[in-house]
Amino acid sequence: MPGADTRRSRKAADARTVLPDAPRGGVDLDGLSTGLDALQSTQHKGGARLGGLLLARVLPPVVAIVLILAVWELVHLSGVKPDYVLPGPGAVWDALVEQWYLGTTLGVIGQSVSRGALGFLAAVAIGTPLGLFVWRVRPVRTAIGPMLTGLQSLPSVAWVPAAVIWFGLTDTAIYAVVLLGAVPSVANGLVAGMDQVPPLFVRAGRSLGARGLRGVRHILLPAALPGYLAGLKQGWAFSWRSLMAAELIAGSPEMGYGLGQMLENGRVAQDMPLVLATILLILCVGISVDLLVFAPLERYVLRTRGLLERAP
C-alpha cells in the first residue's frame, strides 16, 4: 500500500539522521586516530596518577618525621631538660650507630622478632578454634565471652610476675605472657567477624551442601575474613607489647638478648640515648610488620570484596 511504503521510508530516513551509517568495507581512520589518542592520554594519566600516589603516600610520612625531629631538636636546644635526661636526635643516632658497629643490632632485633612471630603463630593456632567454639556454642559464649574481653583489656605486664613464678626465668614464661595477651584478641576478632556474616550466606551454603566444617571453611571464614584480619592485626600488636613487657622484666643472660633486655640495660646504665634508640627500634619493627604483612593483606581482602579500587 502507498501509505505504508511512505511511512517506512520516513522511518528509515529518521534512523539515518539519528544514527548515521558506519563505513562499510573499509577502515575508520578517524576512529582509529581517536582511539590511539585516547590510549596515549590514558598512559600519561596513569603515570601522573602513579606520581600522585607516591606523593600522597610517601610525602606525608616524610614530612611528619621531619617535623617531629625538628620539634625534638628545638626542645633539646631549649634546655628544658639536661642532655643526659633528654638527648637530641644526633646523640640517639650516635647510639644506634654504635650498636650497629658493635654487631648487636641485628641479633637483638632477630631475637625479639623470632619470639614475637612464634608467640603470635601460637596465639593464632589457639585463638582461632577458641573463637569458633565461643561463637558456635551460645552457653560457652555467655560464660567466657566477658572473660575474654576482660583478658583483652588487662595490661600484659600484669602477667609477668605470675609467669615468672610459674615457669621461672625461661622462654616459657615469655611465651606464656605473649599468649595470654594475644589469644583473647584473636578469638574476639573472629567472633566479631562471624557475627557480621549475613545469615543468608549460611542458608545458601547449607542448601549447597556446605555443612559443619565444610560450611565453616568455605562460607563462614571467608565471609568473616575482614573482622578476623582485624583481630589478627590487634593480636600481633598485643603479642609485640606483651613480649616487650616480658623481656623488660623477666630478662636474663640465659634467655638471650632481646630489645626488652637492651632497653633495661640502658635504664640501669642511665644511658638515655640508648634507651631512646631502643624505643625507636621497637617502634620501627612494629611499623614494618604492619606495612609489610598486614597492610597488603588488608588491601587484598578489601579489593576482592570491591571495597577498594585497584591502583592504576
UniProtKB/TrEMBL annotation:
Q: Which residues form the ABC transmembrane type-1 domain?
A: 109-293
- A GO cellular component entry from the record: plasma membrane
Report keywords, A-Z.
Cell membrane, Membrane, Transmembrane, Transmembrane helix, Transport
Localization, per the record, is: Cell membrane
This protein's membrane topology, according to the annotation, is: Multi-pass membrane protein
List the GO biological process terms. transmembrane transport
Superkingdom of the source species: Bacteria
Task: Please report a single Pfam family linked to this protein.
Answer: BPD_transp_1
Q: Where are the transmembrane segments?
A: 50-72, 116-135, 147-167, 173-194, 215-232, 272-295
Q: Read off the InterPro entries from this record.
A: MetI-like, MetI-like_sf
User: What name does UniProt use for this protein?
Assistant: NitT/TauT family transport system permease protein
Which source organism does the UniProt entry give?
Answer: Streptomyces violarus
What is the organism lineage in this UniProt record?
A: Bacteria, Bacillati, Actinomycetota, Actinomycetes, Kitasatosporales
